[in-house]
Each structure stands twice: as C-alpha cells, then as structure tokens.
Amino acid sequence: MTRTRATEAAGAAAMAAMRHAYAPYSRFRVGAALQAADGTVVSGCNVENAAFPSGTCAERGALSAAIARGLRDFDLLVVATEAADPTPPCGMCRQALAEFAPALVVVSVTTGGKEASWVLSDLLPHPFTPASLAHS
Predict the structure, then answer these.
(1) pLDDT tens digit sequence for 11-56
(2) Measured between alpha carbons, how far is 6 from 24 in angstroms, rounded to an integer?
(3) Pick from 99, 100, 98: which is nearest to 121 by CA?
(4) Structural domain 5-124, CATH architecture
(5) DSSP 8-state code for residue 3
(6) Which of 31, 42, 76, 107 has a CB 3.0–4.6 Å from the CB of 17, allowing a cystine?
(7) Could you tell me which of 110, 108, 100 has the C-alpha nearest to residue 74?
(8) Cβ-count burial of 30 within 10 angstroms (0-12 exposed, 13-18 middle, 19+ buried)?
(9) Burial track 117-135 (b if 16+ CB lie within 10 A, e otherwise)
(10) Partners of 94 in beta bridges
(11) What tens digit of pLDDT does each residue of 86-126 get?
(12) Phi/psi at 55 (5° precision)
C-alpha cells in the first residue's frame, strides 16, 4: 500500500495514542486513529481493567470519541501496536465499526515498521447490521 499523507497523519496519531494505553495486565498496548470523511482524525487507546470485561479496545475508544464529536462517516482506521506483526481489530471492534463504515480501510502498523491493510468488509464479511433487526 502506498502511504498517503492522510495515512501518515493517522498513523502518527495512532502511535501517539498507543503510548498512552493503559495495559498493565496484557502489556499489549494499542492505539487507533479513525479518520472521518471530512479529514478529522480522532484517536483512542486500549484501557484495561482488573474486571477484565470492563476494558475498552483502542478502536472502539476512537469510534466512541468520534461519535461523541458528531462524526458518522469514516474512511480510514490506523491501528498501531508493538507486536511483531500487524494486528487487525478484534471481532467486537470489527462489528462496531461495520455499523458506520463497512468499506473502511484498515491499516495496521507496528513500532518495528511492518504494515498490513484490509478492507473492513473483508475482515467481517457478514456483519449484523441495522437491517438484521427488521421484523418480518
């Protein structure tokens, strides 16, 4: 993938957010930067909790922050980790993102310089959508 200026800016935001992650249990710090269609970049980091299900992934943190700002249309997500290989969002994050941007470009970068990219609909080919709630 050719890195664009937008990807570079979102990547820098994701790396910065990763440095603020609170991950004392897994020690797997993650930062995410979600870019809205208007170019606004909103970041988030994972926040773990001793009551393990209470934690929040970086991707859903960025999504929540973007929604709180009134943003609803997204075209790019950059996920940053210290892992050896690029890491895509977890299933729960994929589902949450699919509600707003099934064609979202997802780029995963590592502190070691590795990068991979996907389209969200390829990572989650059959999401549960608002149409799934339709009554027959």
Answers:
(1) 999 999 999 999 999 999 999 999 999 999 999 999 999 998 899 9
(2) 31
(3) 98
(4) 3-Layer(aba) Sandwich (3.40)
(5) P
(6) 31
(7) 100
(8) buried
(9) bbebeebbeebeeeeeeee
(10) none
(11) 999 999 999 999 999 999 999 999 999 999 999 999 999 99
(12) -70, 165
**Residues labelled catalytic:** 59
Evaluate if pTM is beyond 0.90. yes
How far is Cα 107 from Cα 134, in angstroms, rounded to an integer? 32
User: CA–CA separation, 43 vs 77, rounded Å?
Assistant: 9
Domain ranges of the chain: 5-124
H or E element at residue 19? helix 5-19
Residues 32 and 61: their CA atoms lie apart, in Å, by 8
Which run of H or E residues covers position 107? strand 105-110
* C-alpha–C-alpha distance, residues 77 and 42, integer Å: 10
3-state class (DSSP) for residue 31: strand
In one-letter notation, the amino acid at residue 61 is: G
Task: Show the tokens assigned to 64.
Answer: 């929540």
Is 80 within 8 Å of 113 (Cβ atoms)?
no
Angle formed at CA 132 by CA 130 and CA 134, multiple of 5 degrees? 85
